[in-house]
């Protein structure tokens, strides 16, 4: 038995009554973190900053001084993740991922099984080398179009898209930020447990490949049968969002006080519940008109409001209700505007904001017609609704406006833009840079941190990315989250809290075989990941898992790998992983749809992963 294990067993004889105040304080901070992550009362980045402040303020008990509190920002894992996000952004600017998705889907036709295969085959391998969040964001419109062309419900393909990206992330060290963070924690614990070390680029690729194959076979041959058709094939957006119930045409009558005024004047006169989404003047349509758009007698305003306000328009001064709902519906499908869904992305300025239709129109040149929040259609009043990641907006906009939205970071356009603008000529350079980063790190010529940062510089020097695009490519929520949870993990270790939890595990395990305890740790991590961040899961559980393994005389590295793999399997709900949120609205899913397909997959992969770890590394 290793000396570290003997030391742990000696410590494990300390009675439970020796729980210290330091431990209790740190457990309290952990509890606060779990509550905030679960309830989402604060944005993730704000929660992370709050954790740093609380840990430092409570330094006498947590042991986290100001220098340790901000150490997460300078941590190797944090900087590496930041660099990898920028590299992924460079690849996405070239259109390589979208082109791969289209080519893999070309043969799928109307076979749902072939469509799922194309989705998985295009997603999983790429996610092994690029951050899976932008991969899913780029492929949502591609996969949706594949489904519509093949007369298949997008609901059959979008959850498999998200799950395949999570599976692919386990192919290499750089597949997810979780792997990089777990590698850093493993290296830090190496001084206490000789079996632990920093992961190499392909440390667990053999097991990752098995997980990808098993998970893919499940999604292709079983999973899609478990998913209901929430969104009909080639869905009519107007019908799906019940737009006809909230859209009306009103004409500016002769002598109206609105004649000679602007859209702003009309909005003020008709009331705050009225949003002008089109202006029709002499058969010319203005899509998402600006507030300064002039109005004349005879102009027709297409407005979006609630049922009560539509009725009130019959008595409004200066306008006449001339169409509801058929005329308005015809206006919505006019050729000069494109109807599509926009998904609020992770780093969007919309997150946490109340929906202001006027501001949205001015900022994005798009008119909002409907809203899905957490998969539920918001029917009546959408004005003032607080937006969250994954919320889906039905909008009408010009092709140019959609192109601009697709290039930005605020929303994911759920259907491919009419005229996508990619730097296709830079694609070979971007791929070569990414391969160079991987090869240099794999050959251990330089650490992944240095090769990734060199790749960032190369992306800018070669013109794949503009200097100002570096910041847009970073998901700052993830960076702040890492910076906040890293000192939390340090406090858990230094206070003895991790050892105490491990002691409890050892006592509870009793006579259970080591491989069963390993499996239970996998399940615990998987369940925790479904309610809080995957990065938070590895920070909290890897120290506990390593200590518990030493306590029962098992291999700590096997337990670290089990936690790492389980943290990338958030298959039971939409909130455990950001890619699950990205497909929530476009797929029309309900909360239980994720567990319906994900619970069997979670169980199968728990067995495959644990057995694979036992075979390759021993327990």
Automatic annotation (TrEMBL):
Gene3D superfamilies: Regulator of K+ conductance, C-terminal domain. The chain crosses the membrane at residues 23-39, 46-64, 76-96, 116-140, 204-227, 429-461, 473-492, 499-525, 531-550, 557-577, 597-617. It is a multi-pass membrane protein. Residues 235-319, 325-411 form the RCK C-terminal domain. One of its GO terms (biological process) is potassium ion transport. Its main location: membrane. One of its GO terms (molecular function) is monoatomic cation transmembrane transporter activity. It comes from the Archaea. It is found in: Membrane. One of its GO terms (cellular component) is plasma membrane. InterPro entries: Cit_transptr-like_dom, DASS-Related_Transporters, RCK_C, RCK_C_sf. Keywords: Membrane, Repeat, Transmembrane, Transmembrane helix, Transport. PANTHER family: BASIC AMINO ACID ANTIPORTER YFCC-RELATED (PTHR43652:SF2). This is Anion permease. It comes from Natrinema zhouii.
């Amino acid at each position: 038995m290793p000396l570290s294990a003997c030391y742990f067993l000696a410590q494990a004889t300390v009675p439970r009554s020796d729980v210290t105040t330091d431990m209790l304080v740190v457990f309290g901070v952990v509890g606060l973190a779990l509550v905030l992550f679960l309830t989402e009362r604060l944005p993730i980045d704000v929660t992370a900053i709050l954790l740093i402040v609380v840990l430092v303020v409570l330094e006498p008990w947590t042991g986290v001084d100001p220098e340790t509190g901000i150490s997460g920002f300078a941590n190797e894992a944090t900087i590496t993740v930041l660099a990898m996000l920028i590299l992924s952004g460079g690849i996405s600017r070239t259109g390589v991922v979208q082109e791969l998705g289209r080519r893999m889907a070309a043969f799928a036709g109307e076979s749902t099984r072939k469509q799922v295969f194309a989705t998985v085959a295009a997603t999983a391998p790429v996610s092994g080398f690029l951050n899976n969040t932008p991969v899913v964001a780029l492929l949502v419109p591609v996969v949706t179009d594949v489904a519509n062309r093949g007369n298949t419900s997008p609901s059959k393909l979008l959850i498999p898209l998200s799950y395949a990206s999570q599976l692919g992330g386990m192919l290499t060290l750089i597949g997810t930020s979780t792997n990089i963070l777990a590698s850093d924690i493993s290296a830090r614990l190496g001084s206490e447990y000789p079996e632990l070390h920093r992961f190499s680029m392909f440390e667990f690729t053999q097991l990752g490949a098995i997980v990808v194959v098993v998970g893919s076979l499940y999604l292709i041959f079983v999973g899609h049968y478990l998913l209901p058709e929430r969104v009909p094939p080639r869905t009519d957006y107007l019908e799906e969002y019940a737009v006809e119930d909230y859209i009306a045409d009103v004409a500016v009558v002769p002598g109206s006080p609105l004649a000679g005024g602007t859209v702003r004047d009309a909005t003020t006169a008709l009331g705050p519940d009225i949003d002008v989404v089109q202006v029709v003047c002499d058969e010319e349509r203005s899509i998402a008109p600006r507030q300064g758009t002039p109005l004349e007698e005879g102009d027709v305003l297409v407005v979006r409001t609630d049922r009560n306000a539509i009725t009130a328009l019959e008595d409004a001064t200066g306008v006449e209700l001339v169409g509801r709902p058929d005329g308005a519906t015809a206006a919505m499908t006019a050729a000069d505007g494109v109807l599509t869904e926009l998904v609020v992305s992770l780093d969007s300025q919309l997150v946490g904001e109340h929906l202001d239709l006027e501001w949205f129109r001015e900022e994005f040149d798009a008119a909002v017609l409907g809203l899905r929040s957490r998969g539920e259609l918001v029917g009546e009043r959408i004005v003032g609704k607080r937006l969250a990641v994954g919320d889906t907006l039905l909008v009408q906009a010009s092709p140019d406006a959609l192109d601009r939205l697709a290039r930005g970071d605020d929303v994911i356009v759920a259907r491919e833009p009419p005229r996508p603008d990619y730097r296709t000529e830079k694609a070979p350079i971007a791929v070569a840079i990414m391969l160079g980063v991987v090869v240099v790190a794999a050959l251990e010529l330089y650490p992944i941190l240095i090769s990734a940062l060199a790749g960032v510089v190369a992306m800018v020097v070669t013109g794949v990315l503009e200097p100002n695009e570096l910041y847009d490519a970073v998901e700052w929520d993830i960076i702040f989250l890492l910076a906040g949870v890293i000192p939390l993990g340090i406090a858990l270790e230094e206070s003895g809290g991790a050892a105490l939890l491990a002691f409890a595990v050892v006592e509870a395990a009793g006579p259970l075989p080591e491989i069963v305890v390993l499996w239970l740790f996998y399940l615990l991590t998987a369940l925790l990941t479904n309610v809080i961040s995957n990065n938070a899961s590895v920070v909290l559980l890897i120290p506990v898992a390593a200590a518990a393994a030493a306590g029962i005389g098992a291999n700590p590295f096997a337990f670290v790998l089990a936690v790492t793999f389980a943290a990338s399997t958030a298959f039971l709900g939409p909130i455990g992983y950001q890619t699950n949120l990205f497909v929530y609205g476009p797929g029309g899913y309900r909360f239980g749809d994720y567990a319906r397909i994900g619970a069997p997959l979670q169980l199968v992969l728990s067995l495959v992963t644990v057995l694979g770890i036992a075979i390759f590394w021993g327990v």
